[in-house]
């Protein structure tokens, strides 16, 4: 098990710096490995369900020798319409142990995500915003017991 000091991104202390952003990417990678320990071997679609939380959906979108691109989301239903929120595309750089949030949907139904985006809107550019949200969401998922293993 990883200790908290191994997961806390030092980037929070130096917002906007390249070194800080890379530390955040490293923290995202470690958190993803906690959530999906076999990520380098997985392919396809997976779901994690725990009591008291929404089902988490993960899909491997693309894989190459040094990267894995995946989507990570919850699904909400409004009538017959299925809405993904947050809807993130994440790229893992396997050769350097980094994970970057490539995209994040803009209309968040979850109050916690709206708060995170609002708090970081002024001081962070788009990459910082996406990756801070990813980091906090991965922490939340781990705290709630989500785990994605091979089918």
The string of secondary-structure elements, in order, is: HHEEEEEHH
- C-alpha geometry: globular
Number of helices: 4
Side by side, the strands of the main sheet go: 1-2-3-4-5
For the sheet with most strands, the description reads: 5 strands, antiparallel
Based on helices, strands and strand pairing, what is the structural class? alpha+beta
Let me know the number of strands: 5
InterPro entries: DUF1249 (IPR009659)
Protein name: DUF1249 domain-containing protein
Main features:
151 residues, 5-stranded antiparallel beta sheet, 29% strand, globular
Description:
- There is one protein chain.
- By secondary structure, this protein is of the alpha+beta class.
- The protein has one domain.
- Helix content is 33%, strand content 29%.
- The protein has a 5-stranded antiparallel sheet.
- Helix 2 runs parallel beside helix 4 and helix 3 packs antiparallel against helix 4.
- It is globular, with a radius of gyration of 15 Å.
- The two termini are 22 Å apart.
- The mean pLDDT is 82.
Question: How would you concisely characterize the structure shown here?
Answer:
The protein is of the alpha+beta class and 151 residues long. It contains 4 helices and 5 strands. The protein has one domain.
């Amino acid at each position: 098990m990883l200790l908290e000091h191994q997961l806390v991104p030092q980037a929070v202390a130096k917002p906007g710096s390249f070194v800080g952003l890379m530390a955040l990417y490293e923290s995202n990678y470690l958190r993803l490995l906690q959530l999906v320990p076999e990520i380098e071997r997985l392919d396809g679609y997976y779901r994690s369900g725990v009591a008291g939380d929404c089902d988490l959906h993960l899909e491997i979108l693309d894989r190459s020798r040094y990267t894995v691109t995946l989507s990570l989301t919850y699904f909400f239903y409004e009538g017959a319409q299925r809405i993904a929120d947050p809807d993130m595309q994440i790229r893992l750089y396997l050769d350097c142990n980094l994970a970057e949030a490539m995209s994040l949907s803009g209309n968040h139904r979850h109050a916690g995500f709206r708060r995170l985006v609002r708090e970081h809107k002024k001081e962070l550019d788009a990459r910082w915003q996406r990756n801070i949200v990813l980091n906090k969401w991965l922490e939340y998922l781990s705290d709630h017991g989500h785990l994605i293993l091979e089918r």
